[in-house]
Amino acid sequence: MFSLSYNVQRMLIISSFLFLPLLLLAAFSFYPALYLVWLSFTSWDGYSPDKPWVGMANYKEIFENREIFGVLSHNLAYFIGGIVQNILALFFALLLSRRLRGRNAFRIVLFLPYILNSVAIAYMFTYVFDAQNGSLNVLLTALGLEGLITSWLGNKHVVNISLAFISMWKFMGFNMVIYIGALQSIPEDLYEASKIDGASRFQALRYITLPSIRRILELSMLLTVSGALEVFDLPFVMTKGGPAGASETFVTKTVQTAFNFNNYGLASAMGVVLLAIVVAVITIQRKVILRGEKE
């Protein structure tokens, strides 16, 4: 070892430390992903050792069958809810970054939903949205708003909005904490200088705050888009995709295709398509957000 040059020793040490992580990454990420792609070209039923090759038939089925590809429209409610969630998170972050009495208590209250188990939240809101004795309809009755009462999980026109509201409630506190951390990293000198120059609060927000946390905004939007496309737990636990498939998402449809209909080849193709959509959307989003910036 000591007869080797410094650069060679350095590369050997670095390679030694990277070997195990790269091995684990290849075994549990790259290999399953490549195997998934291979399965997407077969008609495997999940049990038989034979995996008949069908070529592009599964992908053709996905784009021609409206019952499969059309469920992506149900994810739109989660995307809109994610945007509203980020706006509210930024609002509360700006508010709770100031020197307010009890701000830490408010931060904890808003962050608590994020640390709750998703399945527990789903069951809790099942009682909130219950059509007969749900607390939401009881509250509307007490306020004299009986005209707004509906079956929140049984009405195909509002079920996705109801589920998206739960997701928004759960993750808003997480984004708020991220934004608070970003806001606290902005030097106070910038705001003091803007006050001396006569800048209003809105101008300080527009020209100092938002540009300073632009990277964090990008990260939050990336998580929002990918999360909206990959929604699974809430519709699976609360509605099972009902009523009449109105709350099915692309992921729940994929799981149903694999485990209910034993069509693992088609389900694998759906997983590949979802991955391609997420990558494409994130790439476009980065190009739009970082337009005019150097990487």
From TrEMBL:
Compartment(s): Cell membrane
Keyword tags: Cell membrane, Membrane, Transmembrane, Transmembrane helix, Transport
A GO cellular-component term linked to this record: plasma membrane
Domain ABC transmembrane type-1 residue range list: 71-285
Pfam family for this entry, one: BPD_transp_1
GO BP terms: transmembrane transport
Membrane topology qualifier: Multi-pass membrane protein
Top-level taxon: Bacteria
Transmembrane portions of the chain: 12-38, 76-96, 108-129, 135-154, 161-182, 264-284
Alphabetized InterPro entries for the sequence: ABC_transporter_permease, MetI-like, MetI-like_sf
Coiled-coil zones: none
Family assignment from sequence similarity: Belongs to the binding-protein-dependent transport system permease family.
Identification of the protein by name: Carbohydrate ABC transporter membrane protein 1 (CUT1 family)
Annotated organism of origin: Paenibacillus taihuensis
